[in-house]
Structures are given as C-alpha cells and as structure tokens.
Amino acid sequence: MKKRDDLTKDLPELPESGQSRRRFMGAAALAGVAGAAGLGTAVMSRESFAAAAEEARNKFVVHPGELDEYYGFWSGGHSGEVRVLGVPSMRELMRIPVFNVDSATGWGISNESKDVLGHDNTHLNGDSHHPHISMTDGRYDGKYLFINDKANTRVARIRLDIMKCDKITTIPNVQAIHGLRLQKVPKTKYVFCNAEYVIPHPNDGSDTSLESSFTMFNAVDAETMEVAFQVIVDGNLDNTDADYTGKYACSTCYNSEKALDLAGTMRNDRDWAVVFNIERIEQAVKNGNYKTLGDSKVPVVDGRAGSELTRYIPVPKNPHGLNTSPDGKYFIANGKLSPTATIIAIDKLDDLFDSKIEPRDTVVGEPELGLGPLHTTFDGRGNAYTTLFIDSQVAKWNIADAIRHYNGEDVNYIRQKLDVHYQPGHNHASLTESRDADGKWLVVLSKFSKDRFLPVGPLHAENDQLIDISGEEMKLVHDGPTFAEPHDCILVRRDQIKTKKIYDRDDPFFASAVEQARKDGVTLEADNKVVRDGNKVRVYMTSIAPQYGMTEFKVKQGDEVTVYVTNLDTIEDVTHGFCMVNHGVSMEVSPQQTSSVTFKADRPGVHWYYCNWFCHALHMEMRGRMIVEKA
C-alpha cells in the first residue's frame, strides 16, 4: 500500500504562507464567479484528490503490447504538421508533415509531396491550428482530416487510410485562415474556415485604409478542395462550428470597433457571433447574386450587417471559441475578456432569420464561469467543460442548469473546477464533435508548462494534460510535453479509422510517377533502367530489402536527374528510403509505394546513395553509386 507521501508527491507544495500559486489561482477563479447567485464549486481535500487521481491513473495505463482505445490527432502549431497520438496512453504514434519540410519522409523534397504543396511553393513554414475529421450524419467517417495554415492562408486535407496529406488549397482574397470546422450533416460537403485579418480590396497598395478593408468566411468543397464561396463579414473572424442540420454555421467575431490598436479592440462590451444560413448562401450563388474579386473566380456574397444571408448576435467580449453541443441544441460562444459563455439556441435561428425575434432572443443562457473562458467541450451527458485561461482551470458546468439560472432560478450550475498547468487554450473530450460524445476523456492543451518538466533552456514545451471525466469528478492523470504549440486536437475511436498496411499499386498518391513511367515504357514493378530525354534523366529502380534493383547509374554533369524507387516488399512495416549523399535528397518508400525525387547532378565524380530507413540486418549494405561524368 502506498504511503500518503507517495499519493501526494505530484501535488503542489505549500509555501510557508500556506498559500500555493495553484490555490491562489483557484481562489481567483472563485472570485470570478462570486457575483452570480447560487454559484459554487466542488472543492476536494488534498487527500481525496490524491486518491481519486491514483484511481484514474490506473485506468489510463496502456500496457506494452496493448492498443489505445482512441486515435488523437493534434495540430502541430508552428511546426506545420499534424501529430498522431494514442489515447489514453498519450504515446506519439506518427507525425504527418503538411505545410512543413520533413527530411525523414521527404515531404517537401519528393515529387509526390510537391504535387500536393505545389512545385513552385515558396512557403517552407506553416502554422496549423485546428484538425477536424470528416463526418457522415454527424458521426466521424474516418475518411479525411482537415487542417488550417494560419501563416500562409491555406487549408489541407489528409487521407486517413495512409495518413498522408493529399490536397492543399490556398484561399484567395483573404489572409490568415484561423478557425476551421466541418459541415456535419448529411455529410462533410463543406470545410468552413474563417479568415481572421481584414485587408483592403484590391490589396495592391493603392488604399490601406480600414474603410475598404474586410475579411471573409470561406467554404471549401471537401472532395474537390476548391473554394465554393466566400462571405464578407463585419469584424475579425475567430473560431467557427456547424450545426447538426446542415443549415447553419456560426463564427465568433472580435474587433467590432474596427480598431488597429490593442486598446481599441477592447472598447466595446459586446462583439458578436455571426450565423451563416448555408441554404440561403448556396441559393444566392446559384441565382448569380455574387461578385468576384481580382483574378479569383470564387463567388463572393455580402454578409455584412443587414444581409439576408447572416445574422449578428451580440455576445461579450472579444469572444474566442465557438462550439456546438453534441445534442445539436446549442452554439456556445466563449467570452475571453468576459467571465461568461453565451448559450445560443439553434432551434431559434429559423425565427431569427425570418425576423420574428431579435438577435439576443436566441440567447438562452450566459453563465459566469471564471476568468478567461476560451473553449468549451462536452461529455454527452449534458455537461460542458470550459477552459479558463487566466485562472488556469477547467470549469465543468451543466448546460440545463445554466439555462435555468439565466431564467431566474436559484441553481448552482458549476459542477467542479480543476487546476491545470498552465493557462489552457483548447480542450477536447472524446468524440465530442459528433453525436457519439462518450464522456470518457478530456485533453486540455495548456500554453505554458513552467515547472512541470525538466528544464530544457529558455524555450519550454507546452503541456497537454489528460483528464478522466467518466465519473462525477474530473481527475487529472497525465502530463504530456509537446513542442511548438499544438493548438487543438480531436479524439476518435480506433475502429473509426481504417488504415492500409501496405500501399495499393493503383494508389493516387503516386499517380504522377505511374503516368510518367507509362510514357517512358517502364514497368515500375520490374524494370531497372535509365531513360534520357535531353538533359533530363529518369532513373527507375526497384527495391527489396536489403538491395536496390540498380546499384550504379551514370549521368552527365548538369543533368536534371529524377530517381523513381518502387518498394516491392509486401511485408508490413518494411519501409525503405532513398538518400543521395550531399545533394539534399531523401525520401520514404513504404511497402508497394513508388516515390520519386528530382535534383541537379552538378558535381562530377562518385556520389553514393543509401537506404535511410532501417529495413534489414544488412541495411548498411543497401546502397549504390551515381557516377557523374564531366560535361
């Protein structure tokens, strides 16, 4: 049996004053809601908290050889990638490069990745925030994951059967795609994404005034990845979500003041949540009631105040997160600079668009939760969980009770507050963006780790914490250091993702290589040969561990060389690689995959290439020579 000191070893130490930083922050959270009648919070003793935490830890352990119950997909933040974790173990399983360059897989180096990124791509960075999985009838279908790039105004799609990005779209006429969510019903027809910053139109330097500036809500066709339409709005768009009817999407907007300075953006006590009527927008586009901007052919409709396509619901203050409850009843707008979250009844939106009620009539609750509410997630049992950035806490509250309190009843809607470490941003409960929210696990993505891990210099890891929410009380069970600020994540059951163990030979991911081989009369699965086309040389080779089908080839100085490697192994996990020494060239070649890379042979002499993915006991011997003859 563990001693009391063992059970409490991870709890904060009390200074001589008897007041820890964590207790102080908890007190601040209580102060933030003290003004609301009937409010309170569940306070646990150190001993009871330690015992509950120990019980929860035993539940989250995944033993060696066992598999996790959930896939977790994390945005990679400034790294520009997506990360795959197992939950509840929080083990990192894979990294999927998207907007970044990755030498391990050759992303940004191989021709197949450049087919996606663009062969003229000059952006070597990305800032990925919001990963979301395609749906059918409000349930995850495991087909695609979509992710934004705030840094370079792009949206990407990842095929979940191979965990590779297969499409990237640059959104025209706007800057900085931030909030991103998917249409849930009847399927993911659209990817909804918010452009955050206002820009003048035309943005050619002739006019930089705010009067000619605006931003837009964007809809991307999930299958073609073409932009379907754009909607001009008032204010700066932040986060977004969609309903469970397919009719409405809603986005938070800040800077109703149209200010350029920080103080100016905080003058108004309320900004707004803007609701988009998707059916009306589609009809307007179909009727030709749109314009285009610049060279773009994307239909642009005007959704500013007074439009029949949108409605603006006043909410406090510089609102940030916008989340749809899994029962489809409510949009929750999180106040950020207000201690409140605003509950918007989706079933009142028809009357709002028919001008039967006023915008604030759609608000059925506005609970005070604490300082700095940013994002809300749900357990499927009627409870919501909101991150409180300033308080460094998560507040668990009951939606129905919050609505009763708003209507004047003396009821306590706060169920519990839990300290997290530190300054949480996004949070995400298992299956919470779907009808299947199961209320088992909550991940809280905290922006600062401070003293939670071994020091590694001035730059610190962030801290993603796993919380057991299966019972009445939240129980913190795991700290997980993460690099370069993941913003958000999504959890899906493992049975909802069906991955391939090896590639199909007709996979579209390397279709361009197959087409070029066809033109050259090459059978990729059998031939090892060199094809010269002027100063362009195409080298085709197979690989079976531990040997390349071609161990030497000759080119001339100045040739543009493209090497195609086809991995003929049919055994799961026998990935090969190709790295040409001193040429900045490397790539992954998984079983039954063809990969290609192009480079300039600009130096005469002998240049070795080798397999850079361990595949065999004789892995070191898997190599070959490129001989470059002087021009």
Automatic annotation (TrEMBL):
Residues noted as binding Cu cation Z2 in the record, renumbered to the chain: H129, H178
Classification of source organism: Bacteria, Pseudomonadati, Pseudomonadota, Gammaproteobacteria, Pseudomonadales
SUPFAM superfamilies: Cupredoxins, Nitrous oxide reductase, N-terminal domain
One term of GO molecular function: nitrous-oxide reductase activity
Name assigned to this protein: Nitrous-oxide reductase
UniProt EC number: 1.7.2.4
Biological or metabolic pathway of the protein: Nitrogen metabolism; nitrate reduction (denitrification); dinitrogen from nitrate: step 4/4
Primary localization class, coarse: periplasm
Residue span, Cytochrome oxidase subunit II copper A binding domain: 532-631
